[in-house]
Amino acid sequence: MNRRALALGALAVSGALALSACGSDETGGNGDGDGATTAANTSISCGDAKGQLQASGSSAQKNAIDAWVKQYTAACKDVQINYNPTGSGAGITAFTQGQTAFAGSDSALKPDEIEASKKICSGGQGIDLPMVGGPIAVGFNVPGVDTLVLDASTLAKIFDSKITNWNDEAIKKLNPDAKLPDLKIQAFHRSDESGTTDNFTKYLKAAAPGDWKYEPGKSWEAKGGQSAQGSSGLAQQVSQTSGAISYFELSYAKGGMKTVDIKTEAAEPVKATVENATAAIGAAKVVGTGKDLALELDYTPTTAGAYPIVLVTYEIVCDKGNKADTLPATKSFLNYIASEDGQGLLAKAGYAPMPDEIITKVRETISGLS
């Protein structure tokens, strides 16, 4: 545990240094170095990248993608990247139908999706490259309440319509000093298939199995509640609805929105922060085989300061058989976002960079894409 804590501390420091060195006008990448041209004042390697790159999927990483695309296309002016945040499920479908060069997904590919990808990855298959991490924040809008502590059991009951009022005894017990109003809870979930929903329900199932009877998945299974499209839609509902609560990536909790502190097995409740998410992701295991780098997350951490509701967004790409006209741009862009500078932009955007041992494997895999 001490070695892990030291490693995570070193990671946080190196990430902060990368970010400060990056600056607002600096971009970077570790290009493949095969005679590739490098844009002035940057280390982004454009190489032979040109044309349009179509991608879609996870809305969780939309703000990270926007930051990356801004820097990358300023350096590589011959490339246009169009990322459509349709949700993880739709993104995988578009990828396996050959409509996009890569997809973003907050859940690793399932066996049937890998099989489907073989039809468009000539001689290869789709693989998972973990690229973006972060906490799934639970945002709330309760008048007069600035700090709110909830545990997995209480969250499960709220999102399963078993706890319906903010002055419920279970919530009072966790928040003895809060002035909880007699106000109906307005719980919002995703209307579209979502990796954020998959990871949120994996947390509920792992941490409160007695209270969450549904199988985790991209589609919302519980009864009741209200729905909205995308993470931005859920965040908007929380902002404008008194009594609302919902789940979305921390980067969507803007404008002073309050987020729940999660009670875990550790002594103190844990806040939704980039640093606390990185602490949890650092305990993940690589469970993919071959070039696939799918991770197994720990949703019930006991370490102090490890935020339990995290997700990792994967860029899904063919290991072999990528289309010749998009391969140079795909490798160039992925090389940049996996680089020290690319990962260095994440904390500023509300995301967690991948731990060093994981992102090193990602970089090696990208260099071998064909």
UniProtKB/TrEMBL annotation:
InterPro entries: ABC_phos-bd_PstS, PBP_domain, Phosphate-bind_PstS. Keywords: Phosphate transport, Signal, Transport. Residues 224-235 have a biased composition (Low complexity). PROSITE patterns: PROKAR_LIPOPROTEIN. Belongs to the PstS family. This is Phosphate-binding protein. It comes from the Bacteria. Residues 1-23 form the signal peptide. Coiled coil: none annotated. Transmembrane segments: none annotated. CDD domains: PBP2_PstS (cd13565). Residues 49-340 form the PBP domain. Residues 215-235 are annotated as: Disordered.
